[in-house]
């Protein structure tokens, strides 16, 4: 179940997308997020969906798999959709249930906002699925390098991020193990009263925190004995290299933005 | 009786992480015996035993426990019933401790499966005593205990649910030699004196030889060999083909055969070996 959460996972591969510089991938993701907010009609949303489907294919990912990963946040999507269906007014009245009405604008807005959320989640997932945590941190560190001049601890934050990212899967595995161990002891949040359910939650969170602190301590010791020093100057083994494919990818993204402006301008 | 038919198990089905951990497992576990499961890391032992109490459901095939059938469609309602008849001591069970006191932690399981407070306390006391945890420690925090003690409290936490069958997944991993022997002796006693059926996953060949009645060898998600412990663990050709070693006592006995030392039944533990060897030597002394 937990292993189905895709954000934060990485699948090694040799696609063009995998090979892009992490900096350009981060930039592309941010650009796309901005572009998503330009969409306001069927034509614009369909363009974006097609674009994402193509990127997924190019990255060698299965569309089915990507959508399976979305199932967990389905609740959020449904909630958003229903909010708009009931609260947004305008257009023709489709259902008149007395104390509430469902109007056409509500349905359309609901669909659009849900699509927008889906697109945002999907591009972020594609980013982490195709970029290793190390590359991602490295890319961020380099992008925020200028902030060092105003005293922002860029390397430390990058180190913290890479450690956190590295431990997300470990913690997920740990959580799954503890849940299983407590289920074997008859613990369940699906049954029993409030007190039992609360107890069931504690039985998972306490061991999880204990093991996370133990890991943190071990890691701290390991870093200490190897002489990690926040002030130390770090060099990296892998050098980031901006290639022509990165430039082309950025140009494609700008063209996509232009296309959306165009579609909006001609009123589609 | 536990029966497994054509059990197949796939992790992360229909994703790029898809992995078939069990291929086609068919076997049975007779009641009131100690069953050993051995095999290299990654051979599917832990995956397999989690199917025996419905922590994992089969991708296809079935597990039959008494009159309950577990297959891919089994519903959560049935889980409770199964967990009342099969206990599971995971690897490093001390990681599941969470209560304020030892006593509360040990009583967590029995109370969850509907055992009344008084019986739960009685069970807890019985198994804590069996594991050598002193009464003065009942109100201590489990996190203040030593590693070996924590392991024993965690084991007591499962045993106090009083199921007929207990599964142990590498129960002695990472223990000091003294606790190791204590835990293995406890497992043996649970069977011989308390009539529990035991399923023991281990990759300690010596423990398996000394303490188990039957052995199943796992390799690449399948059972490649099974039978009585004496037959399987003395079969050097078979073990070598699986990249496993003969138990030390079996090795020694085999090496001494040429000199005429051939006791029947053969010694299974170091102590048995020493006393049988001594006897043989004195009877052969000129
Ligand atoms: N939660 C899981 N998700 C995916 N694969 C797993 C998981 N648990 C185990 N595996 C894989 O299944 C195989 C068998 O693992 P396991 O049953 O733990 O073997 P053993 O206990 O014999 O060492 C291994 O290759 C392991 O990587
Ligand atoms: Mg294992």
From TrEMBL, chain A:
TM stretches of this protein: 26-53, 65-87, 107-129, 248-267
Matches recorded under InterPro entries: ABC/ECF_trnsptr_transmembrane, EcfT
One Gene Ontology cellular component: plasma membrane
UniProt topology in membrane: Multi-pass membrane protein
CDD domains: EcfT
Principal location: membrane
Subcellular location(s) per record: Cell membrane
Keyword Zinc (UniProt): no
Keywords on record: Cell membrane, Membrane, Transmembrane, Transmembrane helix, Transport
Function: Transmembrane (T) component of an energy-coupling factor (ECF) ABC-transporter complex. Unlike classic ABC transporters this ECF transporter provides the energy necessary to transport a number of different substrates.
Subunit-structure text: Forms a stable energy-coupling factor (ECF) transporter complex composed of 2 membrane-embedded substrate-binding proteins (S component), 2 ATP-binding proteins (A component) and 2 transmembrane proteins (T component).
Protein name: Energy-coupling factor transporter transmembrane protein EcfT
Protein species of origin: Aliicoccus persicus
Lineage: Bacteria, Bacillati, Bacillota, Bacilli, Bacillales
From TrEMBL, chain B:
GO cellular component, one term: ATP-binding cassette (ABC) transporter complex
Membrane topology, from the record: Peripheral membrane protein
Claim: Transport is one of the keywords in the record: yes
First-listed, main subcellular location of the protein, grouped into a coarse class: membrane
Annotated GO MF terms: ATP binding; ATP hydrolysis activity; ATPase-coupled transmembrane transporter activity; cobalt ion transmembrane transporter activity
Domain of life (superkingdom): Bacteria
Residues covered by the ABC transporter domain: 2-245
Key words, A-Z: ATP-binding, Cell membrane, Membrane, Nucleotide-binding, Translocase, Transport
Pfam families xref list: ABC_tran
SUPFAM superfamilies, per the entry: P-loop containing nucleoside triphosphate hydrolases
EC number: 7.-.-.-
Compartment annotation: Cell membrane
SMART domains: AAA (SM00382)
InterPro entries, per database record: AAA+_ATPase, ABC_transporter-like_ATP-bd, ABC_transporter-like_CS, ABC_transpr_CbiO/EcfA_su, ECF_ABC_transporter_ATP-bd, EcfA2, P-loop_NTPase
Keyword Zinc-finger belongs to the record: no
Protein task: ATP-binding (A) component of a common energy-coupling factor (ECF) ABC-transporter complex.
Family: Belongs to the ABC transporter superfamily. Energy-coupling factor EcfA family.
Oligomeric and partner information: Forms a stable energy-coupling factor (ECF) transporter complex composed of 2 membrane-embedded substrate-binding proteins (S component), 2 ATP-binding proteins (A component) and 2 transmembrane proteins (T component).
Protein name: Energy-coupling factor transporter ATP-binding protein EcfA2
Protein's organism: Aliicoccus persicus
Lineage of the organism: Bacteria, Bacillati, Bacillota, Bacilli, Bacillales
């Amino acid at each position: 179940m937990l292993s189905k959460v895709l954000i934060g996972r990485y699948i090694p591969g040799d696609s063009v997308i995998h090979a892009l510089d992490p900096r350009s991938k981060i930039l592309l993701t941010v650009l796309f997020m901005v572009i998503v907010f330009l969409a306001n009609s069927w034509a614009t949303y369909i363009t974006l969906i097609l674009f994402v489907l193509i990127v997924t294919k190019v990255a060698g990912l299965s569309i089915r798999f990507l959508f399976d990963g979305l199932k967990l946040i389905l609740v959020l999507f449904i909630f958003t959709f229903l909010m708009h269906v009931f609260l947004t007014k305008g257009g023709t009245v489709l259902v008149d249930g007395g104390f509430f009405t469902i109007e056409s604008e509500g349905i359309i807005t609901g669909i659009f906002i849900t699509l927008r959320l889906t697109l945002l989640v999907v591009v972020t997932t594609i980013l982490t699925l195709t970029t290793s945590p190390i590359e991602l941190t490295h890319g961020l560190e380099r992008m925020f390098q200028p902030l060092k001049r105003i005293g922002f601890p860029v390397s430390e934050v990058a180190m913290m991020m890479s450690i956190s990212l590295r431990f997300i899967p470990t913690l997920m595995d740990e959580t799954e193990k503890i849940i299983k161990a407590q289920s074997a002891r008859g613990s369940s949040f699906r049954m029993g009263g409030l007190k039992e359910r609360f107890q069931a939650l504690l039985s998972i969170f306490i061991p999880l925190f204990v093991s996370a602190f133990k890991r943190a301590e071990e890691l701290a010791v390991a870093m200490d004995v190897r002489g990690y020093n926040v002030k130390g100057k770090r060099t990296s083994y892998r050098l980031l290299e901006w290639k022509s494919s990165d430039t082309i990818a950025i140009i494609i993204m700008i063209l996509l933005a232009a296309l959306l402006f165009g579609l909006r301008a001609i009123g589609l | 009786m536990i029966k497994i038919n054509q059990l197949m198990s796939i992790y992360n089905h229909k994703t790029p992480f898809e992995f078939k951990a069990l291929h086609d497992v068919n076997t049975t576990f007779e009641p009131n015996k100690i069953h050993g499961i051995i095999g290299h890391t990654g051979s599917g032992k832990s995956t397999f035993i989690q199917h025996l109490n419905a922590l994992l459901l089969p991708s296809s095939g079935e597990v039959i426990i008494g009159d309950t059938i577990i297959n891919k469609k089994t519903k959560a309602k049935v889980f409770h019933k199964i967990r009342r008849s099969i206990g599971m001591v995971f690897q490093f069970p001390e990681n599941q401790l969470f209560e304020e006191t030892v006593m509360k932690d040990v009583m967590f399981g029995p109370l969850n499966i509907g055992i009344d407070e008084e019986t739960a306390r009685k069970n807890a006391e019985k198994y804590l005593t069996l594991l050598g945890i002193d009464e003065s420690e009942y109100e201590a925090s489990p996190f203040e205990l030593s590693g070996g003690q924590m392991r024993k409290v965690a084991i007591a936490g499962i045993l106090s649910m009083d199921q007929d069958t207990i599964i142990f997944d590498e129960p002695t991993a990472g223990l000091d030699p003294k606790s190791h022997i204590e835990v293995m002796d406890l497992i043996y006693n649970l069977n011989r004196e308390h009539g529990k059926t035991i399923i023991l996953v281990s990759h300690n060949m010596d423990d398996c030889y000394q303490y188990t009645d039957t052995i199943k060898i796992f390799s690449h998600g399948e059972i490649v060999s099974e039978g009585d412990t004496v037959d399987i663990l003395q079969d050097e050709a078979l073990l070598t083909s699986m990249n496993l070693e003969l138990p030390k006592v079996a090795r020694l006995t085999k090496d001494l055969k040429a000199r005429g030392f051939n006791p029947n039944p053969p010694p299974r533990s170091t102590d048995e070996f020493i006393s049988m060897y001594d006897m043989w030597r004195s009877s052969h002394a000129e």
